[in-house]
## 1
Amino acid sequence: MMCNALRRCILVNTLTMRVMTPEQRRERDRAKYAANPEYYRNKALRYARANKEARAEYTRKYRADNSEKVTASKARAYREHPEKAAAYAKKYRQRHPERNKETWRRQNLKKYGLTPHQVAVMIGQQEGCCASCTNVIMRGTREAKRQAHVDHCHATGRVRGILCQRCNLILGHAKDQPSVLIAAAKYLTDRATRERKNDND
Ligand SMILES: [Zn+2]
């Protein structure tokens, strides 16, 4: 038999639970956690370890269903704790060096409104060569002289072609001015002619 006091106690508890607002309930939980943080942390860890797959699935689904919310929250965290975000990014780069390189390439191409696929198509249209000289170029190679560089007009921003590193540097140093390159070519030809003439004299 349940005594009256116990019955009253249960009734009061049930009633207070019912009238508690969500904020009050959170407040109560916060107080419970603050009184024994070690216990609750271990409990959460134990639960996480025992339900790894289910938790991962829940997270995946939540992120897919709330992509805008997740993006906003990430942006907020980045704004509020830039040093934490930088440390995390560094760790991520170290853990996934290949993924990081591909992301960087993708980001870099975004400036020109290009995707990696579009660059590959352009290189194909150039028959695998630099658009200026005949150097064979490749996407994502470690070899510097084979690297593909997107060349764009600095005035209009329009992409002109894919160049090898050397040609890209030459155009950059000449500030995209044909006259500078023509003058340099003329200089080289003149000097070569003069040397030949001196040798023959
Ligand atoms: Zn070239």
Note: The mean pLDDT is 89.
## 2
Amino acid sequence: MTAIEGTQHLRDRETVVSLSPPSGEQAPAVAARSSAPTVSVVIPTLNEARNLPHVFSRLPRDIYEVILSDGRSTDNTIDVARALMPEIIVVHEERRGKGAGLQAGFGAATGDIIVMLDADGSTDPSEIPGFVGALLAGADFVKGSRFLQGGSTQDMEWYRRLGNWGFVKLVQLRFGGRFTDLCYGYNAFWRDVLDRLSLEQDDGFEIETSMNVQALRAKLVVREIASNEHRRIHGTSNLRTFPDGWRVLSTIFTVDSRKVPAPGTSPTRLAAPTSGTTRKAAGS
Ligand SMILES: Nc1nc2c(ncn2[C@@H]2O[C@H](COP(=O)(O)OP(=O)(O)O)[C@@H](O)[C@H]2O)c(=O)[nH]1
Ligand SMILES: [Mg+2]
């Protein structure tokens, strides 16, 4: 069950510095998509109160809305988030798992573009304009890569690095494509892309793999951009290498048997949240 509480959008609060090119310059043509898109940032959280001040301080000013999708944190994550950003939209997701949190957050998002961001300080919000720029330049789905030239990671033990490499190779063998990274949480996409993805089985850390493979399978224009992953600031990772690695592996083998939702029927897309109210997610 998911409940959503929202207030005024950030865009209403202050001057919007558009992510589109300055007037006079030609915006790249993207069929039926805005050249001055609104951007929703979806942040799944589980006990990240101490990391939020750092993360929020690095968010670009021109974000339309920030959605915190909290998985029953027992610290004061939600209070800290609201103190830092009174306009934030909070989604209460009772199901366990980062994937469940992201699904609920996507359902609450109303911007043209959705950016996925971690709350532990490892994904740098100041990279968001690079993701948006790649979407404006024609991509449907942009994935961060720690292994493209210019990318890096300080938050990956050697065995996770090895596992990620093995999964990248497996995906190349099964589905083609030229991904250089797979299990990384920094992605951005046009919100209409949710119609092409079936995510409701992806409650855990396999969700990024699932999205990446499904984007490839749906023949979306997928672009990788270099990204620098930083060390988690406070606390410890919730990822359990072997059980979660197993979920990623099973996803790679089973994801292509999933039905692609018919346009407009994706369960991940909900109606826009009404300001200042609490709602339950559709179907819960
Ligand atoms: N809503 C929700 N978020 C989660 C859950 N587990 C992890 N997250 C968030 O997902 C992001 C990545 O998780 P993290 O533990 O850092 O995993 P790692 O980056 O793979 O080591 C962080 O923002 C976490 O707070 C969960 O069960 N529910
Ligand atoms: Mg992390």
Note: Residues 118, 120, 122, 232, 237 surround magnesium ion (ligand 2) (CB under 6 Å).
